[in-house]
C-alpha cells in the first residue's frame, strides 16, 4: 500500500513537536505515522500533534507507539485499521514515563487531557 512504509523507522522516542516546544510540551500517549515514521502525541494529549501531522501532510494512518499496542488509527475514517508490522522499534522505551516526558508533565495533567 502506498500510504504505508513498513521499512521507515520512527522519528524518535517521543513527540517531535512536544520535545522541541518552549516551554516544554508533554504527552499522554504517542502515535507513529505509518508512512514517514513521525512520532506525535495522541488526541487526548493537550497539543494533539499526531492529528496535526495528519492535517499538515495528509498522512492518514497512525499506529499506537505504546508498549503492547499494535493497532492502527485511520484519521480519514476515524476508525481502527489493520496494517502490517512496522520497522522497529515499535514502541517508546519501556522505562519512559507515561505521561511524558519525565520532568515536563504538570501535576494536574489529568485535568488537562482532551476527552
Structure explained in plain terms:
The structure is a single chain. By secondary structure, the chain is α+β, with helices and mostly antiparallel strands. It has one domain: Herpes Virus-1. The protein contains two helices and five strands, in the order H-E-E-H-E-E-E. It has helices spanning 16-20, 49-57; strands at 30-33, 39-41, 61-64, 72-74, 79-81. It has a five-stranded antiparallel sheet with strand order 2-1-3-4-5. The protein starts with 15 loop residues before the first helix and ends in a 34-residue tail after the last strand. The model has no long low-confidence stretch (mean pLDDT 96).
Descriptive terms for the model:
115 residues, alpha+beta, Herpes Virus-1, 5 strands, 15% strand
Amino acid at each position: 500500500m502506498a500510504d504505508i512504509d513498513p521499512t521507515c523507522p520512527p522519528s524518535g522516542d517521543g513527540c517531535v513537536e512536544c520535545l522541541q516546544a518552549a516551554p516544554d510540551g508533554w504527552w499522554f500517549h504517542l502515535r507513529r505515522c505509518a508512512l514517514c515514521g513521525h512520532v506525535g502525541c495522541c488526541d487526548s494529549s493537550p497539543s494533539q500533534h499526531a492529528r496535526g501531522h495528519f492535517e499538515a501532510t495528509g498522512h492518514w494512518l497512525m499506529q499506537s507507539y505504546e508498549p503492547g499496542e499494535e493497532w492502527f488509527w485511520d484519521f480519514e475514517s476515524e476508525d481502527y485499521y489493520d496494517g502490517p508490522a512496522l520497522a522497529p522499534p515499535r514502541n517508546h522505551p519501556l522505562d519512559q514515563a507515561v505521561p511524558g516526558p519525565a520532568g515536563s508533565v504538570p501535576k494536574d495533567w489529568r485535568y488537562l487531557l482532551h476527552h
